[in-house]
Amino acid sequence: MFDSLHIQGFRAFEDLHLKGLGRVNLLVGKNNVGKTTVLEALKIRCAGTAAVWELRRLLNARQEVERDQQAEGESQLPWNLRRIFHYKANNTAKPSHQRFSIGPINTPKSTLTLALGRARTIEDSTGAITRQLVEEMPGFGDEQDIYEVAILSFGDGRQRIYALGRIFQGRNLRPTMADLDMGVINCHYLPARGFTENEAGELWDSIVLTDLESDVLAALQIIDPEIARISFIEPQRLARRERIALIRRAGSQVPEPLKSMGDGMHRIFEMALSLANGKSGIFLVDEIENGVHYSVQEELWSFIFQVSSRLQCQVFATTHSWDCIEAFQKAASSHPAEGALVRLYQQEQKISAYTFDERRLEILTRESVEVR
């Protein structure tokens, strides 16, 4: 579990410190202050050595592609990798540093660092092929042999070098087992738009016929206590092979599509699925209040506190809603030392953060002090 977080050189964050984090953390702040970016940074950190593929998915989701006309000497890549680095306000042409790091404060062994560099492939007399950074071989060979690389490393000296062309030239690649052996943390990210039906189905498959099914059912019963069963089907009549979530009420033999019960029910279902799959890991949820009526938010937060504590899962959520903040405070008061509200704010062109523990948060909500 992260008790702190240091994000340096990543997107809007020049040097961000999050301190005093808890089991369940709620991120608040104005628009464009970086709440979602914190979740993205955590998702990349949790990917470990496979972070380069996580970056590709992130750039694709945000439609951040390379411009048609690039500056002289720049390589042309389908995804604009340079957008993940920090740009100073007075220099929009190039990032201030082509390097970022994400990890706990003052814990280099757990900190992931990614930098752009150049390398060359070398074959020795035995035929063994290695990739070496150009900085280690100044003036050696033909410049045409040099290509751009992503240098991924942890603070204890472990390092991997990836050719950008392999990752970003459009091939549908997946990380190998060798990519997954370093720094990986079980992590699930629920975006504001929600999951696709197939993504939700895959999460359901991983817990079906286990005790975790009861957690998902309990979450749905927050809105409708009559729900007794959940299942997924794949109707053959649909043109696209999408799976559909069905529920059945107590005393009824007729299943109903979960989506027919409204956005709030479906949102809670997605959160419960992510939590149930998040044992000993991290659950990230953007705009947690989407579609959820304020009257059930306190009960939802209590559910999140209870399940995350039992499964040893750390939660990071964002919100713009004062109702959500109040509900979070009330639920956190029943779970001492487990909840923290983190306010992001911009000061002198730099984004900073302040953490409110449960005691300070209770004062803020009682006095209706604006922290969003």
Topology, please?
Elements: E1 5-10, E2 13-18, E3 24-28, H1 35-46, H2 51-61, E4 99-103, E5 112-123, E6 129-133, E7 147-154, E8 159-163, H3 164-168, E9 187-190, H4 197-205, H5 213-220, E10 227-233, E11 244-249, E12 256-257, H6 263-276, E13 282-285, H7 297-311, E14 314-318, H8 322-332, E15 339-347, E16 350-356, H9 358-366
Parallel strand pairs: 3-14, 3-15, 9-13, 13-14
Antiparallel strand pairs: 1-2, 1-4, 4-5, 5-6, 5-7, 7-8, 10-11, 11-12, 15-16
Helix pairs in contact: 1-2, 5-6, 6-7, 7-8, 8-9
Characterization of the model:
This protein is of the alpha+beta class and 372 residues long. The protein has 2 domains: 48-183, no CATH class; 188-230 and 261-366, P-loop containing nucleotide triphosphate hydrolases (Rossmann fold). It contains 9 helices and 16 strands. Strands 1, 2, 4, 5, 6, 7 and 8 form a 7-stranded antiparallel β-sheet that branches. β13 (282-285), α7 and β14 (314-318) form a beta-alpha-beta unit. α5 (213-220) packs antiparallel against α6 (263-276) and α8 packs across α9 (358-366). The radius of gyration is 23 Å and the shape is globular. The two termini are 25 Å apart.
Short description:
By secondary structure, the protein is of the alpha+beta class. The protein has 9 helices and 16 strands.
Q: Compute the gyration radius: what is it?
A: 23 Å
Mass-distribution shape? globular
- Count of all domains: 2
Q: CATH topology of the largest domain, which one?
A: Rossmann fold
